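Human: I would love a firmer grasp of how sequence relates to backbone shape in proteins. Could you go through the record with me and say what the backbone is doing? Here is the record:
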Amino acid sequence: MATWNSRGLRGSTLEDLVNRTNEQYREKGLALIQKIPTPITPVRMDKENRHITLAYFEQRSTVDYIGAVQGIPVCFDAKECAADTFPLANIHSHQVEFMQAFEKQGGVAFFLIFYSHENQFYYLTLRSLLIFWNRMQEGGRKSFRREELEPQYYLNKKSGFLVPFLDGVQTDLNERE
């Protein structure tokens, strides 16, 4: 069974930004999106600070967030990257399979990537990920570079939203028509 050993607050800043954005979207009636907790079983605790220091995952998680945007089901996973090359090892096959099944049911699935060294958010459509994923499965690159990404999916900060991913959802939906 997989175990988790605390290495600080990896990804918590991104998670906080996305959670706050979700609250803003909910308050404005634009979307209702929830964080899906990853079920863990604690093995070791730091009793003095009441923190879990070692635990195991009870099951594999699928995506970080799920909800609805104006009646459209959405699910996404948020990933942080500190370089211009994103390793596909950060994405798991069970996530891809879940997202493909989600889209077959009429939903929109995507990855929200935060390029921390550039302070830039990117909305990666599932169809774009599948190009990189299939290339890897066929023995090609195990990563993708920023220059391979579609420029219209970079998310520009505007109108008070910390992570304006609904702009990416709108662009995604427009391209499907």
